[in-house]
Amino acid sequence: MEEKRFTVLDLLDLDLKEQNALDLRCIGGRKGLPREITVPDLNRPGLALSGFFESFAWQRIQIFGRGENAYLKKVEEEGRTDSFEKLFSYPIPACIFTHNLAPGRDFFRLAEAAGCPILQTDLSSSEFTSRILRVLSDIFAPQTTLHGVLVEVYGIGILVSGDSGVGKSETALELVERGHRLVADDVVEIRCVNGSILMGQGANKVIGHHMEIRGLGIINITHLFGVGAIRDKKQIQLVCTLEEWDPDKVYDRIGTEEKTTEILGVRVPQLLIPVKPGRNIPIIVETAAMNERLKKMGYHSAKEFNQNILRWLESENARAVYFNRDDYL
Amino acid sequence: MTERNVTIKNRAGIHARPAALIVQTSSKFASKIWLEKGADKINAKSIMGIITLGASFGTPIRILAEGSDEEDAALAIERLFESRFEEE
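^ Those are the sequences you sent over. The predicted structure of the assembly is below.
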């Protein structure tokens, strides 16, 4: 499978909101927009501008703040633009100017000639830096797509997986009907954030929050159930795998053993739920979610139950010492 | 594992009706079938998955099938692409 390329154009196209918005626009070097961004890092090119190119991190996006821009202006006034030429001899992915700044004419001309995109943002350098690092680390996070439905049930992100036709979408539909939220149906895009958090979301905004229900066709969950019934993304905290009831298979009856499954190297609790007529799967999933919350709060139903039994058996033993003294004599 | 490469020949690309046709066809087979577009790989038995691919006119698609009837399955899907999903 080939890797997905992330280009400067993709960066401009990102649909980010409020505190994540990058407010980027292209002000020059348009033909360089298909340049690929390969590393999730930034560089302030101060040293390079002054002519020192050893260890110059040209693979990174170059950030030009007030200081760099003032220096550019001064250099241009003095007509010493050879360091610009040297700068653009590297295939830099993009130069980004913060504070709504724009470089001088020479810089534009050379960028245009080298095909290096020049972008501009209203944000301050520090704010922009922290935002873009967050965005890039999301984009460069390990990623996979899984077949299943992602729902939020009582605040727990549950990935309902299983073979086609086992009833994943129907289960999710009933959960939505019962007041829970749909994140993505069928194709769930999963990113591993910070190495330990699995974030799931729909693969495509245009067709997001639609579901295919056999016999009904494609339905729009947002329109049918309202915005309260949907969510853009959610951390995956539990995997419920539905499968046809297999009479030869042993299913967990107690629940003291905790099974997990691995997604992108992160272990997630997994429940294997056999499907059979007469079993109400949505209620089982709902209960699983509540049970998961209890566990997170430190109360494990199955383990607690077993401990109580052990304690009771022990006390019965102790009582036996008094009631049946003859046995011990 | 059987592999076949096709390109989309109908003008409209894979919209809802062709997607349904692909799902109907692939559901007849026991094999696992996937469609691959660039880095995206999805289950050919899922309508939403296929539509999510966003496969427009001229897009190269790879058909992958694995199972007991993988060759027939891949061939049947390939025929659908070749016949432009019985459109036009």
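The first strand of chain B starts at residue 2 and ends at 7. Chain B has a mean pLDDT of 89.

Shout if you want it in another format.
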